[in-house]
Design brief:
By secondary structure, the protein is of the alpha+beta class. The protein has two domains: 182 residues, Ribosomal Protein S5, domain 2 (2-Layer Sandwich), CATH 3.30.230; 129 residues, GHMP kinase, C-terminal domain (Alpha-Beta Plaits, 2-Layer Sandwich). It contains nine helices and 13 strands. The strands form two sheets. Strands 1, 2, 3, 4, 5, 6, 7, 8 and 13 form a nine-stranded mixed sheet that branches. A four-stranded antiparallel sheet has the order 10-11-9-12. Helix 2 crosses helix 4, helix 3 runs antiparallel to helix 4 and helix 5 packs across helix 6. The longest helix has 24 residues. The mean pLDDT is 94.
Length: 326
């Protein structure tokens, strides 16, 4: 029996997170950590999901699991939504076994749920020869992210689907950025999980309390991203990294940084990074540091000494990929 298979990459936001919700651009790159999803047809109409985070079976509104984790349904629900979105799009009623394998850390701002959603849509679409375009995959994967994050900007799904470096605006408008040099990046994971939706809401509340101040921060962030795009096109990593430092300060002002994030950012700089900032929603999760070429290991060691988990990553030029297996 044929299996539909797909992989999709994780991401890190280099400039502009949170402010992208308010219409400003952001720069995001896919990175070489991937989720893989395999989908195989099964009898009936139930959707059975297995993953490292839990297993369970959905039959309409009913859910069954032998897993002891009470949160397993919420963990698996986005995968079910992604699967069902494709079946509805293709006007099919089928049973499926869906298996998820991922090496992307969960809940730390690297787009784990988005990569899984994108790969799930692509795998199910490939299984039924749905001829889904990359834009179709992006749009269908966004349904699951609305469940996870409430009001997602769409940036995670877009870069996971298309790969490379994107200059992104809310609504799915993006421009692919070409950089003539490699991006020497190091992720620093605090190990602290957080909920993106709650952090987006906290920024919204601060915006309501302090609209004049927050509007100025948002405007500065937008200009900073445009400067960053120009720097990347020239391969000016020093200038880009300086903008990362400034962006971190804006995110501190928006109220989404933490002591652990600040500590890892400072440790990365002390170890020789050109610039460092939190990446993703904040409130825990990860920082991303730009190093000198060939100096990532030194920056990684500095992050490790400061209590973080370093992850040396490379830009992934390829987004979602799918194929059939017997």
């Amino acid at each position: 029996m044929l299996k539909g298979c797909a992989t999709a990459p994780a991401k890190t936001i280099l400039l502009g997170e949170h402010f992208v919700v308010y219409g400003e651009p952001a720069i995001v790159t896919a990175i070489d950590r991937k989720a893989k999803v395999t989908a195989q047809e099964s009898p009936g109409t139930s959707i059975h999901i297995t993953s490292d985070l839990g297993c369970g079976t959905f039959e309409g509104a009913d859910f069954k699991t032998s897993d002891s984790c009470r949160k397993v349904r919420r963990i698996l629900e986005p995968i079910r939504i992604s699967t069902q979105s494709v079946l509805d799009y293709l006007k099919l009623k089928r049973g499926l076994d869906v298996n998820v394998e991922s090496v992307i850390p969960v809940g730390v701002g690297l787009g784990s749920s988005s990569a899984i959603s994108v790969a799930t849509v692509a795998a199910v679409g490939r299984l039924f020869d749905g001829r889904l375009s990359t834009s179709d995959i992006f749009s269908l994967a966004l349904d699951a992210e609305k469940f996870v994050h409430g009001n997602p900007s769409g940036i995670d799904q877009q870069v996971s689907a298309f790969g490379g470096i994107l200059l992104y605006r809310k609504g799915g408008t993006s421009t692919r950025l070409q950089c003539p040099v490699e991006l020497p990046l190091v992720i620093g994971n605090t190990g602290e999980s957080r909920t993106t939706g709650r952090l987006v809401e906290s920024v919204r509340q601060r915006h309501e309390r302090l609209p004049n101040i927050m509007n100025q921060l948002i405007k500065v962030a937008g200009g900073l991203v445009e400067e960053g795009a120009a720097a990347l096109k020239k391969g000016d990593l020093q200038r880009f990294a300086e903008l990362m430092d400034i962006n971190h300060g804006l995110l501190v002002s928006a109220g989404v940084s933490t002591e652990a994030l600040d500590r890892l950012a400072h440790a990365a700089k002390a170890a020789g990074a050109l610039g460092a900032k939190l990446t993703g929603a904040g409130g825990g999760g990860c920082i991303v540091a730009m190093s000198e070429p060939g100096e990532q290991s030194k920056v990684a060691e500095g992050i490790k000494r400061a209590g973080g988990e370093p992850i040396i990553v490379e830009k992934a030029d390829t987004g979602v990929q799918s194929w059939l297996e017997k």
